[in-house]
Amino acid sequence: MPHTTAFTLSAVRVEVSALWRLAWPMLIGQLATVGMAVADVAMSGHASAEELAAVSLGASIWSIILVSVLGIMMAINSIVAHEFGAERLARVPHIVRQSLWKGFAVGLAGCALANLATVVFDHLYLSAAVNAKASLFVHIISTGLPAFAAYRALYGYSTSINQTKPVMVIALGALALNVLVNWLLIYGHWGLPEMGGVGCAVATSVSMWAMLAAMLAWIRYAPAYRATYPFTHWEWPHWPELSGMLRLGLPIGVTYFAEASAFGVISLLVARYGVVQVSAHQIALNFSSVVFMVPLTFGIALVTRVGHAVGEGNLRRARFVSWVGVALSLTAAVVSAAGIALFRHQIAAAYTSDPAVRELAAQLLLFAALFQLSDATQVATSCAIRGYKVTRQPMLIQLLAFWGFSLPLGYVLGLAPAGLPWAPDAPMAATGFWIGLVLGLTVAAVLLTWYLNRLSLRRMHGAHAAPAAAPRRQAGA
């Protein structure tokens, strides 16, 4: 492949086509995975407002831990992509085996942390029934975390060698299983106990273990994995490899934590305003997470495409791929923003039959539509940066945007604490927090765009200065 890529219309079309071929199976898989959370909220919402509140609060803890684990496990994506691009296929099996060890350890740690975090419910303005159900939801669903972390290790391996259709098929199967078990356990069909929202937790945990088993079977029998098959022999944990993965993955986990925790903490703070506020907030947040899968999937594809280019030592193409991916994500964001704004009332009605919850959720969905452009930009740019195996700077930017800007502003607007001259006269509740989220995402998008431009130019000019050494140095950077 030539080591120059011009920004011509023809070249852009070719790259968009390549990104789309890689991304579309992952997009369906990601939507199916998030569909499990949507099914949990929607099906529990039609049971009762109390069940929806319990699931919403439990999900606020669960989602923070889940995406943090996902972020830590994403290190394998860029590592394998670099090795694959550099045609060092013999290294890949060892990386996968070590990533599985890492996955089980991270999953167990996440499980313990999720269970400890339920003490937060004791300090909120919750009824005893909602507190007990939310805590039990977390205790049960967390048992799926070790399987989820190991699955994401295999997911990253598969997508980084351009095998994305398995994750689509497996996720669709898991969604079907999750909906079936939800239906059985939430409402007590076929003689099974009527567990309400807690049944969602059982269904999700079962589905995660089923996804891991299916992925292991697919890798075992599909010919596409033969050249890099990781299960030829047993291998104990290798600390130098694991420590390298953690150095790369922990900043991604912290980055995901910064964003998810901002949303999760808001859910907990909004809880003081009652079931209607917290349920409407969760509906808007839940649907936003579905829409977010589109730019996130393009971002995961960008990690692979940029990683392959960097592994080859083709830094000009890496920059080209990065900006095409960002533009594609923004285009999708314009479409999704328009759709949310136009159909916000119908979206809210699909989640709940409570009129008060529907009306407030429709208002909050306007904010969800507004931040689509910033959200798509920040996820695409941060993933392109990770394709260069750079993770610390996106972490710092996300921490600044969400914890240094978004949450403080949302706290002031949402709670209107006494003694602050710039606070509103009355608390804006969930609306105030969503204003903070929109502005926080905008800060992240601007800073990450600036950094991606700076990083890609610096790497490209560095490759021109030392062309002979560039491929090996960039692949291991």
TrEMBL record:
Its main location: membrane. InterPro entries: MATE_fam, MATE_MdtK, MdtK-like. The chain crosses the membrane at residues 22-42, 54-80, 100-124, 136-155, 167-186, 198-219, 283-303, 323-343, 396-420, 432-452. It is found in: Cell inner membrane. It comes from the Bacteria. It is a multi-pass membrane protein. Pfam families: MatE (PF01554). The keyword Transmembrane helix applies. Keywords: Antiport, Cell membrane, Ion transport, Membrane, Transmembrane, Transmembrane helix, Transport. This is Multidrug-efflux transporter. It comes from Janthinobacterium fluminis.
